[in-house]
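Issue: ligand-bound run for iron/sulfur cluster - logging full I/O for the record.

Environment: standard queue, default settings, no custom constraints.

Inputs:
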Amino acid sequence: MTELLKVENLVKHFPIKGGLFGRTVDKVHAVDGVSFTLDAGETLGVVGESGCGKSTTGRCILRLIEPTSGQVSFEGKDVTAMDKTALRTMARDMQIIFQDPYASLNPRMTVGAIIGEALTIHKLAATPQIYEDRIVELLETVGLAADHMRRFPHEFSGGQRQRIGIARALAVSPKLVVCDEAVSALDVSIQAQVINLLEDLQSQLNLTYLFIAHDLSVVEHISDRVAVMYLGRIVEIAPARDLYTRPYHPYTEALLSAVPIPDPLVKRKRIRLQGDVPSPIRPPPGCHFHTRCPIAQKGLCDQQSPVLEQAGNGHWVACHLRG
Ligand code: SF4
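Outputs:
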């Protein structure tokens, strides 16, 4: 396997301005030292409750948001150090599909113009005929029809709009696609169709996915590995089968306990976490999860921050008591 993406100690803090002079009075610790690698053709699922930093991580990788510190390398090139020109070229290789297919498509543009915009920006269609042929090809690739190119986004269902978003991302033939909650806004049956489409496209086009979602059931089938995030940090990362059959981290256990099992004879004990996710402005000291962890140890978990340690083959967990 060839390493495509390497993220090292990625940090993103959003300043909070206040006072008379608009000074920085505090900061939101959105991403707090995230590291992982992604091989070409692989899918890494990234899961966690809202506010855990997963979408910010995806956007920092693409430099849609500037990271505070850390390094992102794509095919060995340092993305974090790139100037605007180099970034524009790099944008061909790294694309994003957004969560909301209603908000992410310009309602005043035809579907053809939406998909074709990147072809124009990157000068990928030498003639109007090549431009149109490519749009038709992209529409058909995502299961839409050629005559859809002259219609507007509001004429389509949520699932179809997400297919348009996928066609737009594929227009520049990217290598990595960040799917940022790409199916979260869709009905469960439509979610399955879009996930199947993404899987088919991955094998046809050798795509690599960073697949961000807020629950483990969504990423189960598409992911080769899964990373679980809590308050800006990865708390567990493992091959998907290992994580689903033998989770180590108490937070992963709790998330997994909410995933329905298709066999009605098998019952899973639901673990309900107490309280809400603490504010990322002042995350709890020590293990960020200690305020909700059912097995937290006083004097240890509330004081010392656990680091990711190897608990099995490719299985890493950040917990003082597990692993
Ligand atoms: Fe729970 Fe402590 Fe492990 Fe954190 S380090 S997950 S608080 S047991």
